[in-house]
Amino acid sequence: MTSSRRNFIRGLAGTTLLGAGGCLTARRGEKVKLAIVGIWGKGYADWTFFMKHGKVEIVALCDCDRNMLPIAQAELRKDGFDLDISKIPFYTDYRRMLDDAGTLGIEAVQVSTPDHMHAAIAIRAMKMGIHVYVQ
Predict the structure, then answer these.
(1) pLDDT digits over 38-55, tens only?
(2) 28 and 20 in contact (C-beta within 8 Å)?
(3) How far apart are CA 46 and CA 92, in angstroms?
C-alpha cells in the first residue's frame, strides 16, 4: 500500500470518515485539515496517532475544560512532538468551532467526547459536509 492522502483516509485506524458530501477528495501531498473535539484522554491518543502519520494538520482544538490545554502540551513535549498547541485556535464550545469551520478550513473533525455528546457534534459537522471520526 503506497503512502498517500487517499490511503491514509481509507485506513484511519480501521475506520471510515463519513460525511454528508461523500468521500473526502484526495489531493496528493496535502494534509487533511483536522479539528479535534476532546483533547485529553482517549482523544489525545487518537489525534496524536493521526499526527504520527504526518497526514493531518491540526487547525482547531476544542475541549469544554480549558485546563486540558497545558496538560496536553506537556504530554506532547514528553512524547516528542514539536507542536505548540497554544498557537492553534482553541474553543470550549464545539458549536463556535463549527461556526468558524469555513475560516479555519476544517475538512474533518475527530470527536472524542463522552458518549452522550458524540451524536450532536457528529451530526452537526456532517450536515455541514465535514467528515467525522467518532471515538
Answers:
(1) 999 889 999 999 888 888
(2) no
(3) 19
Which residue type does 112 have?
A: S
Closest CA to 94 of 18, 39, 135, 31: 39
Whole-number Å distance between alpha carbons of 77 and 93: 26
Report the C-alpha dihedral over residues 36, 38, 41, 45, rounded to 10 degrees: -10
Residue with cell 463556535: 96
Picking from 102, 103, 120, the residue whose alpha carbon sits closest to that of residue 111 is 120
CB atoms < 10 A from the CB of 22, how many?
9
The model's pTM? 0.78
> Rounded to an integer, what distance in angstroms lies between the CA atom of residue 58 and that of residue 111?
13
Q: In this predicted structure, what is the pLDDT of residue 20?
A: 36
The most distant pair of C-alpha atoms in the chain lies apart, rounded to whole Å, by: 40
The amino acid occupying position 134 is: V
Angle at 84 between CA 124 and CA 39, to 5 degrees: 35
User: Do 91 and 60 touch, CB atoms closer than 8 A?
Assistant: yes
Q: Which residue type, as a one-letter code, is found at position 1?
A: M
Q: How many helices (H) and strands (E) does the chain have?
A: 6, 5
